[in-house]
């Protein structure tokens, strides 16, 4: 049987698969920082070249931001049963760099006492390691059988970590070329290292930057302190006001469109082997910080949140400077669920902030992206095939889970191309994505490749 | 009369005086940033060499921080009537550098439409321009008469902008050498550009850095948002809680030791030609931000304050990063008045912060210095002499004013050496000290030198 031969080849070629992943990980494709634009381009070029080498018709497509990679196998003729695979080649910034135990862009394999191995590098899990599980699965099918069991189009973007600004217009402009029977996305996690998962609900994401300006120059706090408005104080008050004492978000109308869990889902989640203590304990915390009347699982899977991801104002260097700054700013993100409307929420947030700006101060907003929450229908045709393939590979039934993170592409596929998405990924909660010493389990990489090989086989049925 | 000849020489030699000031301004002696330690040392060396050239017995003295410059004229023999002049050669950092219209350490003279001139550079007003008014006055006396009318010891420190940590121990260790009949300090301002002032009350200063730690690593807000504690939120709440809606500081016991103005002082201040609108208007503001039941003059001269001089947490670079940081920190300063006790206040502040730290988070404090408020007695012997000299030079009676800033040395002179201090300076409110494009009026520099020449003459009487 050809699948068995494909799986055997995957096992045999794992070292070469790793070498290719390492080559991609060495490219510092940080999308949020314009200084790394050339590196983003280099990562796109590398991927297009790899796919061309496999026989894909691959191209790098310019956007107003970082380029897209689009590849077809075989060439489209409009009659095939086709799936669209999506991944992103951009990565998060690496600061604080001093907390990395090795160069974030010099990937290495670390071996634990129990013999298990992990791949350590920025992007190892998010999302280069994950997207390469699919590329390597395709490689094995083509090498072993001379082709893929189902026609495939691949779309890699380079702005996922910076708001995916070019994605909507690109899908719109290339809808005919990209439309497929279903989409496959590998940017999610497993339940634990032995139990695969399919993510069927995703929180949306709104990212806003707020800058408060008081005086038109920095002031000396000895001369002006006590009389002149300090934008640090204004901003701190705004940020502090975002939550009440019970952890509930206070922006008016924030919870509109947020449904309560159905009894069935609540029962299912309560039955899961999830420990809030362990979840928080792995990062050195004990007390859930969110809405005090919700479980931790509900907080991270089903409830909308507001987080201050960054704030800065005044002198923050070594020593002390008694300045009253002219400006202070914060980056604030909202995770959305259910039917919360990103546009309404952005307006409500702006009103909330403006109501707290003194008459002689001013405020500016910059949007870094806004996408609604999503739910994948339980009767989606690809879901059953994905479940079967994962069960075959891992020997246990995959769990249908919620996801706290946001993958804007899934909404865009639904809205713009009318496609359902199968969200399968092999990340783990402790992968430290977006943090120093990001890693990806060797077992995730290896069995991830095998899982995609199986899914491709199932999709042909 | 020799004073007239001294004044004439000052007028004649103004260009050379400016050249010497420019040489000192070119040295980037930023004391808060360890990267500039060599430059601080260079500024001390430069001053010692200048004073030696005038006939002072001058030396650079090491401390645990930046060095002191001590110079005597003539050598001490223990019998002379002597004054101690104090200034500081260190300057504030220059960020944000992009707001400077020219290199902060390449001094230049700018001429206004009305022909008036100003010296633009970091340290032009605070304190290099000011301390050089005294050095140039001494130079003119020595050049014209072969000596000074009164024996002088000069003390220049290099840590005034970073908490004056070495000053107390240095005074203690060198009390015999430094003790004098009175101290002269030139680090204060005029009432306006035509009206000199002597500062008779000074606020104290406590500077504290607070760092809140939540999780033991940075987290992804999609995975952990809503459940994990965000130190930005904890810190924002603490900072927001420092003031109530009326602008009053809420730290328990904060106002203990703060006296109300006497009726006489209140009447005097009400009679001053001070416009709160103009004071705030010069920096683009309109509404007083402090205690709502106090006048602006009271807020900046007679009331204690708390200001957040810096705060930072999470991702603050270009673009967006959906991180929940491990740490967030703030630099907070307190201006003290009356009998407020710095130590008690620091403890109250620490308690205030700790009460707002969740059980599974931690907080660290770093002190950057603490000094009490001061009042110069109205019957201080040097005060009358200073008044006379300033009236002679400026043609108007100098005002006795309060001062919002803090000059730790004045307290140290009182406490450790039992000396009164005459606080005379020629800065103006719009000198932009601690801000981009700091300047010092040419008239302040020129008439400042003449004023010190007259004060030296008076002190001999």
Low-confidence stretches of chain A: none
Helix content of chain A: 25-40%
Estimated radius of gyration of chain A = 23 Å
Number of discrete helical segments of chain A: 15
Q: What's the CATH architecture name of the largest domain in chain A?
A: 3-Layer(aba) Sandwich
Number of strands of chain A: 18
Explain how this protein is built.
The first copy, chain A, is α+β, with helices and mostly antiparallel strands. Chain A folds into 2 domains: 2-202 and 375-459, Aminopeptidase, CATH 3.40.630.10; 204-258 and 304-371, 2-Layer Sandwich (Alpha-Beta Plaits), CATH 3.30.70. Helices cover 35% and strands 22% of the residues of chain A. Chain A has 15 helices and 18 strands. Chain A has helices at 2-12, 14-25, 37-54, 128-145, 167-173, 175-178, 221-224, 231-241, 263-271, 276-281, 296-301, 342-354, 381-394, 408-417, 442-459; strands at residues 57-61, 68-73, 82-88, 108-111, 117-120, 151-157, 182-185, 197-202, 204-213, 219-220, 305-314, 323-324, 327-336, 362-371, 374-375, 399-403, 421-423, 439-441. In chain A, strand 4 (108-111) and strand 5 form a beta hairpin. The model of chain A has no long low-confidence stretch (mean pLDDT 93).
